[in-house]
């Protein structure tokens, strides 16, 4: 019985041990199944990855083939280009020589340009100076033209004065030439006793005018040209006494201090055209203040109605 218990106990231990091992196997089987499932999934993923990579590799191989073809073509092109380059080395050398020549010419042209620039600056400066000189000359010319015009005006003025002086000279010469026609009494007093008086002169010597009015002046004065002008009535008496004592005849005297200064002068009178010293102003008014000038007798009659003595203006 004891032996059976031991056997049963041993069998029970073996059974428990077997159960334990079965459980372990069962767990290992579960784990193995689980690992197998994981392995299948990984294999599937690896298979997909392989397929993808294989596809990519095929594409890369295709690209490589294409690149090899392109490379082959490029090599062929390179060979052709190298051949062309070998054939064009002389042309390149010639072009290089031409480039060098052109660079030298460009350098020379640059030097010439700098030279021309300097010449241009000098020419511009010279031009500016000439323009200033031209402006100055133009200004001077304008001034000279103004001076010329002024000189012309002065010449005309001087010519007019000269004509007037020449007329006076001619008048004086005419008067001088007619001195012989003076009455002997007048000639005697002028030649022998003029210095004995403060004033002793004939009317013809104290009045002057231009050539245009000289004839009218002589015509108006008439015999009064030979009248003797003295300063006072006493001078007139003394001169008359000299003529009487020397038996030289008679003369007409005009004492200045006896003349009134309020004689009327009409507009346009011959008085305005005659010149004299200021001390003979009263005498000029007396003799010429109411003498009018006209270009013709008809004009005088038309203007005056025949009421005045008329002297034509030649």
Explain what this protein looks like in three dimensions.
This protein has 314 residues and is mainly α. Helix content is 73%, strand content 3%. It contains 8 helices and 3 strands, in the order αααβααβαβαα. The protein has helices at 2-87, 89-177, 184-192, 203-206, 211-221, 233-245, 281-288, 297-304, and strands at 200-202, 228-230, 253-255. The protein has a 3-stranded mixed beta sheet. β2, α6 and β3 form a beta-alpha-beta unit. It is rod-shaped, with a radius of gyration of 75 Å. Residues 310-314 have low confidence and may be disordered.
Q: What's this entry about, in short?
A:
Helix content is 73%, strand content 3%.
Biggest sheet details: 3 strands, mixed
Structural class: mainly alpha
Please give the number of β-strands.
3
Spatial order of strands in the largest sheet: 1-2-3
H and E string? HHHEHHEHEHH
Shape: rod-shaped
Kindly state the mean pLDDT as a whole number?
83
How far the N terminus sits from the C terminus, by CA atoms, comes to: 211 Å
- Residues in helices, as a percent range: over 70%
Radius of gyration: 75 Å
Number of helices: 8
Low-pLDDT stretches are 310-314
Strand content: under 5%
Task: Give me some keywords for this one.
mainly alpha; 3 strands; 73% helix
How do the strands and helices of this protein lay out in sequence?
Elements: H1 2-87, H2 89-177, H3 184-192, E1 200-202, H4 203-206, H5 211-221, E2 228-230, H6 233-245, E3 253-255, H7 281-288, H8 297-304
Parallel strand pairs: 2-3
Antiparallel strand pairs: 1-2
